[in-house]
Design brief:
Layout lengths: L6 E3 L4 E6 L30 E4 L20 E6 L6 E7 L5 H6 L3 E7 L20 E11 L5 E2 L12 E4 L2 E2 L2 E4 L3 E8 L6 E5 L5 E6 L2 E9 L2 E3 L4 E7 L8 E6 L22 E7 L29 E11 L5 E6 L4 H6 L12 E8 L5 E5 L5 E8 L1 H10 L29 E6 L11 E4 L3 E8 L16 E7 L2 H5 L3 E6 L2
Parallel strand pairs: 1-6, 7-12, 11-19, 20-22
Antiparallel strand pairs: 2-4, 3-5, 5-6, 7-8, 7-9, 9-10, 12-17, 13-16, 13-18, 14-15, 14-17, 18-19, 20-21, 22-27, 23-26, 23-28, 24-25, 24-27, 28-29
């Protein structure tokens, strides 16, 4: 786990050559060749490719899952950093191996700075920037064998929940803190676990930023929910804490989120109530003011006014065998190789246009959905009658598309594009929570819910966007629960000229 995060300034390009010097995979016994893209050679010669999560990056540097390179090889990444200050992170994105490679430690943080948040601090917000009062927290959950080696299922499972909290590569760590204001850049880098964080002292978490940078104003929270792939920029004020006081960062999110397993007894199996501890140092308290406005040099975030040129309905679904065992987690009931080979099965927005993407979750647990290339705004959330919609969706019949490479024949089950959910909606749309009202690239989609996003596919798509480039080419969108992503909840999309 890389915790000495790179820090770069907005508009200053960076060119990085990454070398694959990996040896035999530390989770070699869990390499599952039944997953797409995985080969037996991944045991001793693991592939890798880096994705800079949250970056507005050209396709050749985005970390396309099939663009992997082997031990002894290298790859060049060009990051233009032409976007607002924010909490980005980078991680492996190898087709079929992302879960194992992240579990083995291939993840790190990447911070972009700008005038509101300059390198070295002394910015207009008066918040920490850099050590010792700005601290990255990369959260994971692991399991270990009796000899201390990492443990992971030997065959694919729908989810993985470890029993040891890992922060920056350490189990249940302690951080000694002074009696002053701290800033924590938090990334949920877990496979499947949602974290709903709180402090044992019951003091508030002050969220100042989300995936894509600063919010308009601080949001004071008793609990902070982060799904896999999401980030939060958080202030904690220890100035009122007592010397020697021990404050535990706690987690009360059920696993699977939000309701856990079916029985009360089983719900205790995957709990992880404690993440890390803060121990307050001796010394005088040094209070710091909390800024009331966070966007001094950048425009306030307002709803994108440009009318979407297209709406896309995107279904989150699983495929079962005759014994009701899950064979794969899917998007629009399309397999990766089908969409990769057939343009008509890919989403194909045009550059510098705005679209509305509607994620429809037909499953009894939440997912986190991530778009590469561009940030988005959450428009609203609305419940759906999943039973009625699912029955109607499945009754629409197979796609009539000739696909010689599809397993079992020349058609694939269910309809494409997915059915309009409007007749099946329940209740009224709900606006995003205050801490979701900023720029996002990863969104929680709750069970039996439609989440509507406004997505600008280029810097000229609308006014006051937080990034400056308009790229065309092929990117991906996927669930960021890593076992889902590996089988088969990820699809390519094309941004067309």
């Amino acid at each position: 786990m890389l915790i000495r995060q790179p820090g770069v300034t907005r508009g200053t390009p960076v060119r990085i050559r990454a070398f694959n010097k990996l040896g035999t995979h530390p989770l070699a016994g869990s390499v599952d060749t039944n997953l797409h893209g995985v080969n037996a050679s991944d045991i001793t010669n693991p592939r890798t490719i880096i994705h800079l999560h949250g970056s507005n990056t050209e396709p050749d540097s985005d970390g396309y899952p099939e663009d992997t390179y082997l031990p002894g090889q290298s790859n060049v990444y060009n990051y233009n950093n032409n976007q607002e200050a924010g909490t980005l992170w980078y991680h492996d994105h190898s087709l079929g191996m992302t879960a194992l490679n992240l579990q083995a430690g291939l993840a790190g943080m990447y911070l972009i700075r700008d005038e509101d948040d300059p390198i070295g601090g002394n910015g207009p917000l008066g918040i920490p920037a850099g050590a010792p009062y700005e601290v990255p927290l990369i959260l994971q959950d692991h399991s270990f064998n009796s000899n201390g080696s990492m443990s992971f299922p030997v065959t694919w499972k729908t989810e993985f929940y470890g029993d040891v909290a890992i922060v920056n590569g350490k189990a249940w760590p302690n951080l000694n803190v002074d009696r002053t204001l701290y800033r924590f850049r938090i990334v949920n880098a877990s496979n499947s676990r949602f974290f709903r964080l709180k402090l044992s002292s019951n003091q508030q978490l002050i969220q100042i930023g989300s995936d894509g940078g600063f919010l308009n104003a601080p949001v004071y929270l008793s609990k902070l929910l982060l799904g896999p792939g999401e980030r939060a920029d958080v202030l904690i004020d220890f100035s009122k804490s007592l010397p020697g006081e021990k404050i535990v960062l706690q987690n009360d999110a059920a696993a699977p989120y939000p309701k856990g397993l079916a029985t009360v007894i089983a719900q205790g199996f995957f709990k992880m109530p404690e993440i890390m501890q803060f121990t307050v140092n001796k010394g005088a308290a040094v209070p710091k003011p909390i800024p009331t406005q966070l966007r001094v040099n950048n425009p306030l975030i307002t709803k994108i006014a440009t009318k979407p040129v297209k709406q896309r309905n995107l279904v989150l679904i699983d495929i079962l065998n005759s014994n009701f065992q899950v064979l794969a987690m899917m998007l629009n009931a399309v397999y990766w190789h089908e969409a990769a080979n057939h343009p008509e099965l890919r989403e194909r927005p045009k550059v510098d246009t705005v679209e509305q993407w509607n994620f429809i979750n037909l499953q009894p647990f939440a997912h986190t959905m991530h778009l590469h290339l561009v940030p988005f705004q959450i428009l609203n959330r609305q419940s759906i009658n999943d039973t009625a919609y699912s029955a109607a969706y499945r009754a629409t019949g197979p796609r009539k598309v000739l696909m010689h490479d599809a397993p079992g024949g020349d058609t694939v089950p269910y309809n494409y594009p997915p059915l309009d959910p409007t007749p099946y909606l329940k209740g009224l749309p709900k606006p995003p929570a205050a801490n979701e009202a900023g720029w996002k690239d990863t969104v929680v989609v709750n069970p039996f819910e439609v989440v509507r996003l406004i997505v600008p596919f280029g810097a000229k798509a609308a006014a006051n966007l937080p990034f400056g480039n308009s790229f065309t080419g092929r990117f991906v969108w996927h669930c960021h629960m890593l076992n889902h992503e590996d089988n088969d909840m990820m699809l390519p999309f094309d941004v067309l000229p």
